């Protein structure tokens, strides 16, 4: 006859083994966000500022920022994922490690024939992968919040 306590002990052993294995997998998948690995990012929230108008929420793709993108440090590019509606690639002109952040910066001339050029900066937390992108244009500013993960 199987006793309840014996069954519970076996479940506890299996549960502990799974906990240890999953913990090891999680540690192995950790990401330093130090610029050495390809990362993928998701833009989660955008806020637009225009002069003295009240800030407005916006969808990042509505202003030309893919909602999902790769940061390719090797080639110094920000590239949209294949399922992103925005298909523009943006060069990273500068990257620096400051405190616990990786700072990326660049400029983008926008659409030819339209005065919509911008300067941008992206700060990625090396601990969490959370990011903030700030974008400056003529009489407009955007702030985008999101998170990144390593994929290599």
Describe the 3D structure.
This protein is an alpha+beta fold. It contains 1 helix and 10 strands; from the N terminus they run H-E-E-E-E-E-E-E-E-E-E. Strands 1, 2, 3, 4, 5, 6, 7, 8, 9 and 10 form a 10-stranded antiparallel sheet that branches. A hairpin with a 2-residue loop joins strand 6 and strand 7. The termini are far apart.
Q: What is the H-and-E element order?
A: HEEEEEEEEEE
Instruction: State the share of residues found in helices, binned by percent.
Output: 10-25%
- Low-pLDDT runs: 1-29
> Can you give the mean pLDDT?
80
Oligomer: single chain
How much of the sequence lies in strands comes to 35-45%
CA-to-CA gap between the ends?
A: 50 Å
Taking Cα atoms only, what radius of gyration do you get, to the nearest Å?
A: 21 Å
Question: Based on DSSP secondary structure assignment, what is the total number of beta strands?
Answer: 10
Structural class: alpha+beta
Q: With helices defined by DSSP (H or I, 4 residues minimum), what is the helix count? A: 1
The geometry reads as: globular
Q: What's the main sheet like?
A: 10 strands, antiparallel
Layout: helices, strands, pairs:
Elements: H1 4-28, E1 39-49, E2 56-58, E3 68-72, E4 77-80, E5 90-91, E6 94-98, E7 101-108, E8 118-125, E9 130-136, E10 141-150
Antiparallel strand pairs: 1-2, 1-3, 1-10, 3-4, 4-5, 6-7, 7-8, 8-9, 9-10
